[in-house]
Fold this protein.
Amino acid sequence: MKMYQVDAFTQVLFKGNPAAVLVVDEWLDENLMQNIALENNLSETAFVKKIDEANYEIRWFTPTTEVDFCGHATLASSFVLFEFYTQEKLIQFHVKNLGIFTVQQAEDGKILMNFPVRKAELVTEYPEELTQALTQPFKNVYLNAQAYIVEYETAQQVLEEQPNFAILKHLGKIRTAITAPGSMIDVAITAQGAQYDCISRYFAPGSGIDEDPVTGSIHTGIVPIWAEKLNKSEILAYQASARGGELHCLMQENNRIQISGYACLYMQAEIYL
């Protein structure tokens, strides 16, 4: 069976977030899909099932569990479909509980993904584990369906954070994102030296991922916060993991958000089942 590995949210190999992608005619057994994801040991392995040339179903697995939404593996899957499986330039993913994701490819290869906003609400009560696990002082805590989103004063605090993953793991399937405005980011952290509107990092030890390199899904919660604070509909975000990645984000009508980025093919493989 053919498998692809793609670096998502980057134009440079070995940056962004790697995801494995398998395109199948019928769903594999769930235990088998989980074992493939465990064997790959990447943040996510995506399985894509074709409906027709422009419509697909998609599922995502970390090394330990199936997740309900993954942005970078959707980008990687779109890249593979556009490159190898369809002549269409606009496709749709049919996603359980989240509806339809419309994805299109621009002339320069940039992939534009339309997602539902997963709005984060400001909370005043949150688990003591956040205070115990995070070493930097923070301003606010938000919560959406996916994660606690913790706002810091400066980008430098985000860069310097060294969380206690063992404590964060006690939060279970609720992940933790940290974020700050990007105006004070030292451009030396990126190859492009771009000026970012916000910076973030993302921790999911309860799902088998201590720190995710680049996370498209959580930006459906992070970006609306900064769009409101900065009074901007277009946000350039940077996820400051060791690999790093850029997310081009645009708030849209009807509680939707466009998250866009590039991808690079690292590997094609044949797996034997």
In short: Helices lie at 30-40, 71-85, 128-133, 155-160, 165-168, 219-230.
